[in-house]
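Form P-L/3: holo structure prediction, ligand pyridoxal-5'-phosphate.
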Amino acid sequence: MDEHVMRLYARTGEVFVGGSGATLVDEKGNEFLDFLGGIAVSALGHGHPRLIEELRDQTGRLVHTSNLFRHPYTEDVAQRIARLTGLANVFFANSGTEANEAALKLARVHHHRRGELERTGFVALEGSFHGRTMGSLSVTHTAKYRTPFEPLVPGVCFVAPEDIATLEQALEPRRTAALILEPIQGESGVRNLSPEFLRAARDICTRTGTVLIHDEVQAGCGRTGTFLSADAADVKPDVVTLAKPIAAGLPMGVMVASAPFAETLQPGDHGTTFGGGPFVLRAARVFLDELEHGGLQQAAAQRGEQLQAGLLQLCGDFEIALEPRGRGLMAGLRLSVDVKDVQRRLFAAGLITTTAGADVLRLLPPYVVTAAQVDRGMSLIASVLKELSPR
Ligand SMILES: Cc1ncc(COP(=O)(O)O)c(C=O)c1O
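OUTPUT (holo model):
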């Protein structure tokens, strides 16, 4: 089985060959309800007719030219993302970790150009996950991801989420370039940061001239009911990073910055061969169009509320279901039983999920999931929790 592929992923052995909406089909023709969505990527689900049609058309026109040339979609997509985020300028990358690398580099170059040469440090939060490249890994907290690859970028300090007093001390006006945080921490357990903490972080960064980077790679792009998850707390970062669903399944990361920070960058400071090519931008256009004008944002918000209400209900019905987590279609359920066992049983019953941290079942359905599918997902989870509940 995949003998020549590096053994980096704990795969189930299942082979999926097709799908439609929130349903995936394996090679034997079995159907699965997809509450993983390609790990928060497949917002339009599988086999989306408009996406298929537009990508077929784009393949016949133009796939790649390089960033030495503009394309009609370049400014179109950038302008839409700038409007939706309330920020000014966009850099197109190819993944979440690359978007974060760009954000960290932007923070450093911003201070460097102002003559603040010592201002190179980063503050991040305990429980953070920002990606696997050296810079993003340096601000990722979990030891198992970091330790084999040390030494990483020096000058990184981690602060516990919600600890405003320690954050205040950690952000040193002469040494800290940026604070990076996920407004809803994904990998470590779908943990919402409080609006008070997000606002305090904003205030301290403004006071100290520290660049505030929000990593919305997993929580952003409408998944939680608003375009950015931090919109719910009415907090605007200086820089935001996006990826996962933004090009409807094609690889794309985005760094968006407000004008004073974006204007720091000069030609040659940063770049990429593939980022922002016509093919991925066409997919991003479809996603953003569906989100804004095709009713997808409203649908995601409604299904997200239904999902959260369902999880709350499960916590009322089963003692082993401890707490719903997350917001909208970025959802978690903290359990007192082995969460990997629950994930395996759900898979056997036809529901694809994932886990986060040690004890959280994580649900990231496509935005096109139907009300009936959310109900079905909840009843499959209820059946497994019933099997595992003490009698
Ligand atoms: C919050 C967050 N940031 C960054 C990343 C890294 O994204 P990618 O895997 O596209 O590099 C992830 C991936 O799960 C993520 O959840």
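COMMENT: Residues 95-97, 100, 129-131, 182, 186-187, 215, 217-218, 243 surround pyridoxal-5'-phosphate (CB under 6 Å).
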